[in-house]
Specification:
The protein has one domain. It is built from four helices and two strands; from the N terminus they run H-H-H-H-E-E. The chain has a two-stranded antiparallel ribbon. Strand 1 and strand 2 form a beta hairpin. Helix 2 packs antiparallel against helix 3. It is elongated.
Length: 96
Amino acid sequence: MKEVANSPLIKFFVKEYQLNYETEPKYETIWEIFVLFNFVNKWKSHSNSDVQVKAIALLVAFSAVRMTELAKMVLEDICYIGEQMQKQNLLKKVAY
């Protein structure tokens, strides 16, 4: 068989597992991250709540964590090492 892509077996596999669809972007618009960085850089408020908002905004911007995981995060999950802040992850096994 010269054309592997035209094989009935390959066509069935591609159709069955939906490998032939084109992906579309998840969101219509994407935030320009420099707008956030400029805002944080110019923000001069030093109240505790404002510092927390700034820290969370930067954490969300720099992490690849899903929002559901960030919503579950508690203060005990954050470990401070010098000037670094690390989030401890607890992996759970899921039975299928």
